[in-house]
Design goal:
- Helices cover about 70% and strands about 5% of the residues.
- With about 280 residues, the protein is mainly α.
- It has 2 domains: about 60 residues; about 190 residues, f41 fragment of flagellin, N-terminal domain, CATH 1.20.1330.
- The strands form 2 sheets. The protein has a two-stranded antiparallel sheet.
- A hairpin with a 7-residue loop joins β3 and β4.
- α1 packs antiparallel against α5.
- It is rod-shaped and about 140 Å long.
- The two termini are about 25 Å apart.
Length: about 280
């Protein structure tokens, strides 16, 4: 090997190796700091693009989850109010049947009619207050149904059907101004009431079925989000135990490289010995 003070091949080689070690060490430190093996497109463009696409789907599923949670809340509020109305109708039937007793005196009939009208007011109050986030399925204030997001592309929807249980409507045919002040009135109301009770119970069954569907789909969306997040993690997350071991090895390699460069830089001093006098 040529001995020269101008060109030190050993030092250049040692410097190249040290620079390579420093670059690898910086990469490992970045993976340890971020917890990511692939933090940007520069690390691995193809895998990063796949991960970004999955992150977009996860974000969209977050919006779907919020929509379904709103649907679930509306369904639960409606079901609770509907059950209350059903109980009030059952209580009302007791008053109506009692009013059909021809032996009642005027005071008793007046008291029964007063209770009956009080129940009618309670039904109106319940249906008008059965709203969540401005949506009321029971008072006829909105159309035939409400649709909620069901997938990340917003191409599928889940529907909650409205169930108008307002007085004098298609389900509860008893009018808000109804009266049981006479046996004749009470007899007519009883027929309407029996039909209304059946209609309301059917409506509650529909709400219950749709609520169950929403809860099941919400559970699925939550699980799907977890699976996608795990998948993204498998693509881009760093194995920190492995990176820790690699970090320690590179730190030792860096120290050895620095020592090798120092030794190589001292090699040209041999030239001085060649020109010393005997």
């Amino acid at each position: 090997m040529t001995i020269s003070v101008h060109t030190n091949k050993s030092a250049l080689t040692a410097l190249q190796n040290l620079n390579k070690t420093n670059d690898e060490l910086a990469n490992v430190q970045n993976r340890v700091n971020t917890g990511l093996m692939i933090a940007n497109a520069k690390d691995n463009a193809a895998v990063w693009a796949i991960a970004q696409g999955q992150r977009a789907d996860i974000g969209a599923l977050g919006a779907v989850k919020m929509s379904l949670q709103r649907a679930q809340s509306i369904s639960e509020v409606s079901a609770t109010a509907g059950e209350t109305v059903s109980d009030l109708l059952v209580e009302m039937k007791q008053k109506v049947v009692a009013a059909m007793d021809t032996s009642l005196d005027t005071a008793s009939r007046t008291a029964l009619n007063s209770d009956f009208k009080s129940i009618l007011r309670q039904i109106t109050q319940v249906t008008q207050n059965a709203a969540f986030d401005g949506a009321n399925l029971l008072d006829g204030s909105i159309g035939t149904n409400i649709q909620f997001l069901a997938n990340a592309d917003a191409t599928n929807k889940i529907t909650l059907s409205t169930q108008n249980i307002s007085l004098g409507g298609s389900l509860i045919t008893v009018a808000g101004g109804a009266s049981i002040s006479t046996v004749t009135f009470a007899t007519a109301i009883l027929t309407q009431l029996n039909t209304s009770i059946g209609n309301v119970n059917q409506a509650l069954g529909n709400l219950g079925s749709q609520g169950k569907q929403i809860a099941a789909h919400l559970s699925f969306i939550s699980k799907l989000t977890d699976v996608l997040e795990t998948g993204v993690g498998n693509l881009v997350d760093a194995d920190l135990a492995k990176e820790s071991a690699r970090l320690q090895g590179l730190q030792v390699q860096q120290q050895l490289g620095a020592q090798a460069l120092s030794i190589a830089n001292q090699a040209p001093q041999i030239v001085l010995q060649l020109f010393r006098g005997g």
